[in-house]
Every structure is written in structure tokens, then in C-alpha cells.
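Translate structure to sequence.
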């Protein structure tokens, strides 16, 4: 008999971990953290070892869920109860839940020892606070000890805050959202319906997505949405300057007031308003702040576990097989891994969590495979502008962009409608391009040089392509992956761009 832990669509944020629960004293596979990487590992372990007994321990109250819809699709839902159902329509019109699986998929933690064919159990609302690596066991925050044969650390990270906000006092902190979890989505949704002005600090992926989502909502109400960041334009650390400027104009059209080159000096509360003082003297008044200034990898177990933290990238330092020490692997945001093609890296994206979690799970069952299958990531600024990227995309690198005129088919919405795929995690299907075929259609002239409708941007290091952004070009990621895997110098990147068929109507 299976006892349901939780029914997500009825009790989406209440885990079933009563005080009387008899926890298993041993888990053959122990996964610390309840996010995407952990779930991908659990599925991978069970695929290779069908009788495996897997225990996921998470300090969140929820079963494993995907984070991207929290800043993307959920905001575009027409359903007034979306904060409760957590169901959303993908760009292709199909509906799904943000939970990877319903509660019926999991077994009760109490049954893990006795269940004949194994399974995956989730312990919600519990935190691992200590690791005894030599003894192969961990201690929870309630002093429970659980031993393991193989352990995965997939603890993700916590959103960074600005020190000036942390020092600003209780009232400012109370009116500041650090966006990461389901509860943050619910809280910000409620705030956006009850205040006149929201200011998002941060110009990266999360900040820009939330700005567009709230901006879209502001057109239906009198909500003022402000986005400020130190760079000259949106996604300034990722996109070359001309494309960052173009993107900023698109974000403005979504109803967002942009304040660029903004460095926050202090934040105060005056006359029931937050006052953000910038270093150049500008003053911004608002009701609520969302800080989206990056993630601090959670390395709380480094000391007790004797695990090395990377001084450059942060996160637990692991080898190409994602192993930190004997019987311990790390995946997702918290892993600083060695990429055999691109060197040491740490990546904070959904698809990397899928790829690294799956690889860690395979290696926990004896596969000994290195990390080489490049994960991709994507960002959609509304249903009309979207991009997919792979490798190292950093605006400080030299770039070459090849663009063509976009058609109605060149939007995230059209792409997902045509492909029938849902949330874009390309690596869910292990597509690899064996031989790319170049388009023979002649390149049309782009009439407006400032209209970057669709295109390919190559990022170079020592004349070799190390990163690629596909700008409103979809379902071509295997081609990009092959170019990076080959690691060759290319005399003419215009010719390489033809492999993506961007000049086809």
C-alpha cells in the first residue's frame, strides 16, 4: 500500500512530515536537496537500478518542482487561482503542473526500508546540518541520523541580497522580496495586486523576466514597474552591447520603466514609501523591492563534510564525474565542476540541473561518465522574444553576431506550438547533431540593421567558439552543441551560421 505524502493540487505547500514519523535509519541513495538536480538524479538512479531505494531530504515544504515557471509562465496565466494550483499553460497551449510528479509517484519515507521494489521517498521540511563522511552518515536538524551508501549534494543556493538593503532595517527588509521559491511567487503575486509601485533591482535573467511579467500585468492595472541595474542595458553581462540595448527597448515596451547604470547607495523608509538613493544622486520612490542580483551557492556542509569550496566560482569543487569525495557527488547550482571541453565552471540554470543531476545519478550507480553533454538555458521576455544559449556566454568575450529578418514563426510561442515540446529543457531528449546540413537559401538583406529579429551570436575564446546564443532561433541546439564539442577554429562564422538555417523563411 502507498501512503500519499501530499496532494500538490490540494495542499501545494504543506509537506507530510509529522513529528511521529519514523524515519529510515539508512538510505542506499541519499539525495540532499529537493530541486531539479535531485529529482533528475533520482530518476536516473531508478532507471539504471530499478530496485533502488532513494531518499530525498529537502528543507522546503514541497515535493520536487521546477523553478523556471515561477518567473515565466505562471505570471501569464489567466487562472485567478494559479497561486494555489501552480498549473500553467506552456507557450504551446498545453497545461501542466510545476511539480515533476504527483504525490502518488513517491513512497512514504517510513516504507523505504520495507518496500520490495524500491522507490523514491521525500522527506520535506527537514534540513541536513552535518555530514560524517568517514562514517557515511548525516545528521538532520532534529538530530536524526541517517546513514547512506551513496550521497548526492544538490542544495542549490540562496538569493543574494544587497548589503545596503540588509543594513536598512526591518521595515525595508519586510518590503523586499528575494525571489527563489513557491512561497516567493505567491507573496510577490499578492504584493503586485496591492501596491502602486514595484522596483526590481538586477538586470540579469531573473530580474528581466520578472520585470516583463509584472510589466505585462501593469498594463491591466495602475501598477508602476521599475527595473534598475548597474549595466547599460538588460542582460548586459551576457549579451553584446548592441543586443542588450535592443532588448532593453523590448522590455520598455512591456510597460517597464528602466533605470540603467544605477548603483544603490542606500534605502530608507519615509512617509510609507521606500526611497532608493543611487550613488549618482538619483532618487527612486517605490512601495516594494525585488532583488534579483544572483545566487549564493549553498555550501553549508563544506566544513563538516571536509569538502572543498571553489574560491573563484563558489560551490563544491568536483571532478569531471561530479564527484567530491568517495561516495559523494554534487549536482546543480552548488556544483563547481570540471567541463572537459570548457574547463572549470559553475552553472545556475534549470537544464544544467537536469543534465548534472542525471549524470550524477548515473555515476552513483557506477557509470563513471564525465560531464561533456553541454546543458542549455533559455529566457523568454514574453511570448515574442526568446533565446536559447549554450556554453560560456559572457559579454566580456569577443562575439560575432549573424542576423536575419524574423518571420511570425520566429517566436517562442510559435516554436513550441510547432514542436509540441513543453518547458524548454532540450537535454531531456539526448539529441546530438551528427552532421549539420547548411541551408542553401541565399541570405536575404536585413532591411533595418537595428532589427535583430533572429540570429546566432558566437562567443569566442582564443578564436574558438565557447558559447552560442540562438536569438529567436529554436530547435537547433544540437547543431550548437556539436560546434562547441568540436572545438575548432572557424575562418568564417557567417558560413557556420548557415548551419542554423536562419535565412529560411
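Result:
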Amino acid at each position: 500500500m502507498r501512503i500519499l505524502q501530499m496532494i500538490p493540487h490540494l495542499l501545494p505547500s504543506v509537506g507530510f512530515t509529522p513529528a511521529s514519523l519514523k524515519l529510515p535509519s539508512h538510505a542506499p541513495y541519499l539525495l540532499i536537496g529537493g530541486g531539479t538536480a535531485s529529482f533528475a538524479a533520482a530518476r536516473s538512479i531508478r532507471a539504471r537500478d530499478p530496485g533502488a531505494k532513494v531518499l530525498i531530504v529537502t528543507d522546503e515544504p514541497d515535493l520536487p518542482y521546477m523553478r523556471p515557471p515561477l518567473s515565466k509562465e505562471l505570471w501569464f496565466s489567466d487562472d485567478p487561482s494559479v497561486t494555489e494550483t501552480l498549473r500553467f499553460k506552456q507557450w504551446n497551449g498545453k497545461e501542466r503542473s510545476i511539480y515533476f510528479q504527483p504525490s502518488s509517484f513517491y513512497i512514504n519515507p517510513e516504507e523505504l526500508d520495507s518496500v520490495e521494489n524500491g522507490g523514491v521517498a521525500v522527506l520535506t521540511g527537514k534540513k541536513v546540518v552535518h555530514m560524517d563522511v568517514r562514517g557515511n552518515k548525516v545528521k538532520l536538524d532534529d538530530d536524526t541520523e541517517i546513514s547512506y551508501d551513496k550521497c548526492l549534494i544538490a542544495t542549490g543556493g540562496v538569493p543574494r541580497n544587497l548589503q545596503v538593503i540588509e543594513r536598512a532595517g526591518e521595515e525595508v527588509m519586510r518590503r523586499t522580496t528575494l525571489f527563489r521559491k513557491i512561497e516567493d511567487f505567491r507573496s510577490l503575486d499578492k504584493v503586485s495586486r496591492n501596491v502602486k509601485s514595484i522596483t526590481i533591482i538586477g538586470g540579469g535573467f531573473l530580474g528581466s523576466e520578472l520585470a516583463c511579467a509584472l510589466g505585462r500585468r501593469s498594463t491591466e492595472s495602475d501598477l508602476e514597474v521599475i527595473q534598475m541595474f548597474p549595466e547599460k542595458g538588460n542582460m548586459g553581462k551576457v549579451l553584446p552591447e548592441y543586443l542588450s540595448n535592443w532588448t532593453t527597448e523590448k522590455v520598455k515596451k512591456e510597460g517597464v520603466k528602466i533605470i540603467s547604470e544605477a548603483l544603490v547607495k542606500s534605502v530608507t523608509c519615509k512617509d510609507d514609501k521606500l526611497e532608493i538613493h543611487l550613488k549618482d544622486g538619483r532618487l527612486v520612490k517605490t512601495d516594494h523591492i525585488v532583488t534579483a542580483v544572483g545566487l549564493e551557492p549553498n555550501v553549508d556542509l563544506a566544513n563538516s563534510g571536509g569538502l572543498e569550496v571553489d574560491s573563484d566560482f563558489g560551490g563544491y569543487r568536483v571532478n569531471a564525474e561530479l564527484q567530491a569525495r568517495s561516495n559523494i557527488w554534487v549536482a546543480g547550482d552548488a556544483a563547481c565542476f570540471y567541463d572537459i571541453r570548457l574547463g572549470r565552471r559553475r552553472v545556475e540554470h534549470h537544464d544544467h540541473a537536469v543534465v548534472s543531476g542525471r549524470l550524477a545519478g548515473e555515476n552513483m550507480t557506477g557509470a563513471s561518465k564525465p560531464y561533456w553533454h553541454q546543458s542549455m538555458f533559455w529566457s523568454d521576455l514574453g511570448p515574442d522574444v526568446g533565446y536559447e544559449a549554450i556554453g560560456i556566454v559572457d559579454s566580456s568575450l569577443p562575439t560575432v553576431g549573424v542576423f536575419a529578418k524574423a518571420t511570425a514563426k520566429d517566436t517562442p510561442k510559435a516554436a513550441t506550438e510547432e514542436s509540441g515540446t513543453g518547458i524548454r529543457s532540450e537535454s531531456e531528449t539526448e539529441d546530438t547533431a551528427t552532421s549539420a546540413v547548411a541551408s542553401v537559401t541565399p541570405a536575404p538583406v536585413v532591411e533595418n540593421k537595428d532589427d535583430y529579429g533572429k540570429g546566432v551570436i558566437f562567443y569566442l575564446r582564443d578564436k574558438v567558439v565557447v558559447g552560442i546564443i540562438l536569438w529567436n532561433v529554436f530547435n537547433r541546439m544540437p547543431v550548437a552543441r556539436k560546434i562547441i564539442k568540436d572545438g575548432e577554429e572557424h575562418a568564417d562564422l557567417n558560413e557556420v551560421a548557415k548551419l542554423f538555417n536562419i535565412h529560411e523563411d
